[in-house]
Design a protein that fits this description.
The complex is a heterodimer of chains A (175) and B (349).
Chain A lengths: L2 H7 L2 H37 L3 H4 L1 H24 L10 H45 L3 H27 L10
Helix pairs in contact in A: 2-4, 2-5, 4-5, 4-6, 5-6
Chain B lengths: L1 H4 L1 H17 L4 H8 L4 H9 L16 H22 L2 H27 L4 H7 L18 H8 L20 H26 L1 H26 L6 H5 L11 H8 L3 H8 L3 H7 L10 H16 L7 H26 L14
The chains are: A mainly alpha (175), B mainly alpha (349).
């Protein structure tokens, strides 16, 4: 059973496009979980304490940022997926294209999973912030600091993904 | 981890709302204002500035303590039903479990009313509104427990708890108390198993709260049975098994014959030992008061965790305690007997 032959049989297009797909979908999953967690708590807490309604939308914005990171990487990767002619390509070009395919897949996974957990985290913290704010207004700013740290981890994912895709290119002139 | 992120889908809004209700629970300053009242009208005025608002505004006729109590309970019911009607899935079932304990109290109240030949309407008026069920009026036809079960209870949610109670004896004073405790034991154990089935933080929080409830009932049953005809074996059958006293403590309690021996059993558990000792503050607190205090402490702690159903249970219990406090203060005010007005149990700072 030759794993190498199996892997070689997969086109780099498969890996690259999977990277795009996973990158955006996992990011959106994380953002969605974050938004409904925080949003439900803001709505619930806002019934008896209406003053929290506007301030706590910041938490929703942090969750949304996570989805934006995902779409940035998806656009960056998908615009780099360029046609190359497998039959006439030299070994060097072939290798460069395969490398690009794997890099794009990895970048998609990186940004996807980082944003997934970041979104869940920001959601839970944002929910706590809304409910704590409803009870005691001075707590909101303190908990916001925790949220800022939580959203930073999503940013790390984007940075690493950008680094992964920085020097790789697909196409007939790739090296 | 992800199961707790899924909590907010169905129950996130209701949890936020329940915490909003909890924020409206009277604080120390509110109680201070209430204890300063001279008349019940003053009390009504002070309650207007709290979460209770104008709940007494439409009262025609003179204000009495029983009217106040009725309105307080009504407000709790309205809030509870508002939450319950929006609940789905496990949460809906959980909230139904909360109402079963009131149903049990209502059933026993109606039975004892029948025994003393009270008119059914009067008894129905005294029932706790949170524990209503459709067959309540039909209870007066029952003379034995089998009739009670076949005619009335088999269609209510209390049916599975009645399995241990059915026999052919006629209902009398002793039996009714035994029925109450047997039903409650089955209910507590069922509730505890249900919470374990839900798992996660709910199981953790409810386990603690229900374990204390079970142990407290075991202690009270033991102490109240001294000097009555209740046999030790019968007493043992009434102890709920979901507490920390199970199994060793319950064995010892079953053998106890006086309060000193009960105290010995309590010595094995740090929290219970404290309650049986004299706390040396000079205030004359009964054992029940100390149990209430501990219950309040546990219920307030339930709010420290998020994404679990325990907050709904604790909200109901804390609101109940608040109603008891307000009625205590109202009684002291209306009877002008202010000596023990401070004996309410503070809930929040």
């Amino acid at each position: 059973y030759d794993i190498g032959a199996v892997l070689e049989g997969f086109s780099p297009y498969l890996w690259a496009n999977l990277g795009v797909g996973l990158g955006i979908s996992l990011s959106v999953l994380g953002a969605a979980i974050g938004i409904y967690t925080t949003g439900a708590s803001i709505l619930g807490g806002g019934v008896k304490a209406p003053r929290i309604r506007t301030k706590n939308l910041i938490s929703i914005i942090f969750c949304e940022a996570v989805a934006i990171y995902g779409i940035i990487m998806a656009i960056v990767i998908s615009t780099s997926v360029v046609h190359f002619d497998e039959a006439t390509a030299s070994e060097k070009v072939l290798r460069a294209n395969y490398k690009a395919g794997y890099s794009f897949f990895a970048a998609g996974l990186t940004v996807g999973f980082c944003n997934l957990f970041c979104g869940v985290c920001v959601g839970v913290v944002g929910s706590g912030a809304a409910l704590a704010d409803a009870q005691n207004g001075t707590l909101f700013v303190k908990i916001l600091i925790v949220e800022i740290f939580a959203s930073a981890i999503g940013l790390f994912g984007v940075i690493v993904a950008i680094l992964q895709t920085a020097n790789v290119r697909m196409g007939d002139k790739a090296d | 981890m992800f199961s707790e992120s899924m909590f907010s889908v169905d129950a996130g809004y209701l949890e936020g709302l329940a915490r909003g209700f909890k924020g409206g629970i009277l604080k120390k300053t509110d109680y201070y204002n209430l204890t300063q009242c001279e008349t019940l009208e003053d009390l009504k005025l002070h309650l207007q500035s709290t979460d209770y608002g104008h709940f007494l505004a439409n009262e025609a006729g003179p204000l009495t303590v029983s009217v106040i109590e009725e309105r307080l309970k009504e407000k709790l019911i309205i809030e509870f039903n508002h939450l319950r009607t929006q609940a789905t899935g496990y949460l809906a079932e959980f909230m139904d479990y909360i109402t079963y304990s009131y149903m049990i109290d209502n059933v026993v109240l109606l039975l004892s009313g029948i025994l003393h030949d009270r008119p059914i309407k009067e008894m129905l008026a005294k029932c706790h509104p949170m524990g209503t069920f459709e067959q309540m009026e039909a209870i007066h036809i029952a003379t034995t427990t089998r009739e009670l079960y076949d005619a009335v209870l088999v269609d209510t949610p209390l049916a599975p708890y009645f399995a241990d109670c059915i026999n052919e004896e006629d209902l009398n004073e002793m039996n009714i108390e035994i029925i109450r405790n047997t039903l409650y034991k089955a209910y507590l154990e069922d509730f505890s198993a249900f919470c374990q089935q839900i798992g996660g933080t709910t199981a953790e929080v409810m386990q603690e709260v229900l374990a204390f409830e079970a142990d407290r009932r075991a202690f009270m049953i033991t102490i109240n049975s001294f000097g009555t005809e209740l046999l030790k074996e019968d007493r043992k059958k009434l102890y709920p098994a979901c507490g920390r006293l199970y199994p060793g403590g319950l064995e010892m309690l079953a053998q106890a014959e006086e309060v000193e021996q009960v105290k010995l059993v309590a010595d094995y558990f740090a929290e219970y030992r404290v309650m049986f000792e004299d706390d040396g503050t000079g205030m004359d607190k009964t054992l029940e008061d100390k149990f209430f205090e501990h219950e309040v402490r546990l219920n307030v702690r339930a709010f420290m965790q998020q994404f679990h159903y325990g907050v709904f249970y604790s909200l109901v219990k804390l609101k109940e305690q608040e109603i008891r406090n307000i009625i205590w203060i109202a009684e002291c005010v209306s009877q002008r007997h202010r000596a023990k007005i401070e004996a309410y149990i503070p809930i929040l700072e």
